[in-house]
Amino acid sequence: MYVWPCAVVLAQYLWFHRRSLLGKAVLEIGAGVSLPGIIAAKCGAEVILSDSSELPYCLEICRQSCEMNNLPQVRVIGLTWGHVSQNLLALPPQDIILASDVFFEPEDFEDILTTVYFLMQKNPKVQLWSTYQVRSADWSLEALLYKWDMKCVHIPLESFDADKEDIAESALPGRHTVEMLVISFAKDSL
To answer: Is 147 in a helix, a strand, or coil?
Structure first.
């Protein structure tokens, strides 16, 4: 459990948009050490952190991150991608879903988008703010996004000062190729 390069880039995006986070309902999926969710909570968002319900030590890491950052109001729940659970059903509508480097195993892509689609049914205006590290030119979300009636906008890293090898005094992004995406329903009229 450590901070991945994509988490620093997503945290930078959140910081760049910090004024729009106040009072927003934000869910981080696959949170791990929870850097993006912690930043969102520090910027005034109402944050819920989640990681796999099958990995209790990941949920404990989320809790420890909240404790170390003096954020007792942040809830931590178990969500397993692609599974309908009581925790998923009980979630209130979200404004933003955060996902830092969750698209790393192609066999998980559809389960992730299934979960996001379910959350989009609760609030069709919700956006998934996601960063991922390019690991293979053969991996693509495009077909799955089309299948789930979603669209994707690529956000240039230079538009939020994340196009450097170091961000906020962290060398974590380094020379990794990181992409920033905003995913939403394809139909804006919903």
So the answer is: helix
Task: Answer whether residue 170 is part of any domain.
Answer: no
pTM above 0.85, yes or no: yes
Structural domain harbouring 44? 3-148
Residue 153, both tokens: 């906008």
Going by their DSSP bridges, the two strands 25-29 and 178-185 should be labelled as: unpaired
Pick out the chain residues at pLDDT < 50: 189-190
The CATH number of residue 69's host domain is 3.40.50.150
Beta strands in 111-177, from DSSP E residues, in sequence order: 127-133, 150-155
Count: domains in the chain: 1
Retrieve residue 106's tokens.
């192609």
Q: What is the pLDDT of residues 124-138, one digit of tens each?
A: 999 999 998 866 666
